[in-house]
Model the fold of this input.
Amino acid sequence: MKQYRLFIIILITFLNSGGSFSFGQEHKKNFSQLSGNTQKMAKAEARSYKKEGFQNIPGDPSLQTQVENFYLALDRQGHSLYVAHSESDDTHFQSAKKKAQQACIQEISQQIEMVFLSKIERNIQRSSLPQKAGILKALNTYKQQTLPSTVHQHLEPILILKKEGIDTLTLLVGVKAVMEKVHQQINKDLFEQLHMAYNLKEEEWKNIVK
Done:
């Protein structure tokens, strides 16, 4: 995954809930459907992380399985998933988790802005709506204040590995978010907000998001 360092991966739901991973019975079948080069990259990446000293949390799937699941998610990125990853260092687990959490939210939010909200913004700008200026301002406020919490609600864990040093703990964690579910939530929240504030009609909103 080193070639994907531009993405930020962080586990949120799993760390907050204290639950365990569940990857399902289709993992091996799905992984075998990836291209040969992608499978080799995943296996090489897993070996690299082992050499660096990373290991799975006791009770979680093996490091190899988690890395394979990350590559399965990457294969769908931009089509049906938002995916991100990063490392987080601190002296305490909770502090490392908090840093990772914020980094993940920020990166996934930026992806959503580029992929989805930028289109909505362009359509508003091109529209002839008399309340256009106010709607654009409300959209910007939504990005800053509401979008992060929406991202948090829809993140699902992919991977969590740890590397313990003398004075520090390094977490390598990953999440995915299903694009369809995220977009549906944003559509619902934004329309309700704009309808109440600017009396935006449903047909007008459909023209904006089409």
Q: What stands out?
A: The longest strand covers residues 81-90.
